[in-house]
Design goal:
2 copies of one chain form a homodimer.
Chain A: H1 3-10, H2 13-21, E1 27-28, H3 29-33, H4 40-52, E2 56-61, E3 64-69, H5 71-101
Antiparallel strand pairs in A: 1-3, 2-3
Chain A binds a DNA duplex (30 and 30 nucleotides) through helix 4.
Chain lengths: 106, 106
Amino acid sequence: MSYEDAIAALADPTRRVIIDRLRRGPLPVGHIADGMQISRPAVSQHLRVLSDAGLLTVTPSGTKRLYAIAPDGVDNLRRYLDNLWDDALAAFARAAEDQAKGKSDE
Amino acid sequence: MSYEDAIAALADPTRRVIIDRLRRGPLPVGHIADGMQISRPAVSQHLRVLSDAGLLTVTPSGTKRLYAIAPDGVDNLRRYLDNLWDDALAAFARAAEDQAKGKSDE
DNA sequence: ACTTTCTGTAAGCGATAACTTACGGTAAGT
DNA sequence: ACTTACCGTAAGTTATCGCTTACAGAAAGT
């Protein structure tokens, strides 16, 4: 749910591959695992992590389970980075000013 | 340098604490480590990871070394998430449409 | 009812990551 | 020249993570 879990989930390359496969739309587990170099249970475990992080939603459809990217989860992380971006720019500008005035540090 | 390294670096809670301490401006290593519950060498190791990921810049100043957030590095990650956000929204809208038409999956 | 399909979970193993202490090295002050 | 302050790196340990195989369960078809 929190952006902390989301960024931890997206830190894994394999999970980003899974996310990439869901960019076009929802897919069942088997279809996601097809062509991947890891076992299907491994994919299931990754899907669990992504779901717990609020990045995916699940909708059962018969025996299949459709996974889809949850926009809200992505937005959480996006806002964190936007905030960090703003602060970084402000600090950068301030440091440039201070250096022009001759101050080096605190 | 790449957003992959950046997201892996920011996945660690301790490294996010370090980033938070640099939001107001550049700081030397000792000042960053003060008040933290891990040793100073541990902080140094984290700073190395963040630097390698392109999230920090280093400017030697006497015996001290000033670390600062690199806006470019943050922006890399920001763009990745903006892209993912766009795709997620489009896929979400398409899935809602498809469901309205009665299609369940592929 | 039985089989098939699709999926989640448990147990166990190997690799990696984060931490510690100890050491080395550079810049400034006396 | 010597000391002090500040910092990075090496070596070693412990915990966590990602993977595999094996098993269990639910839904649909025959």
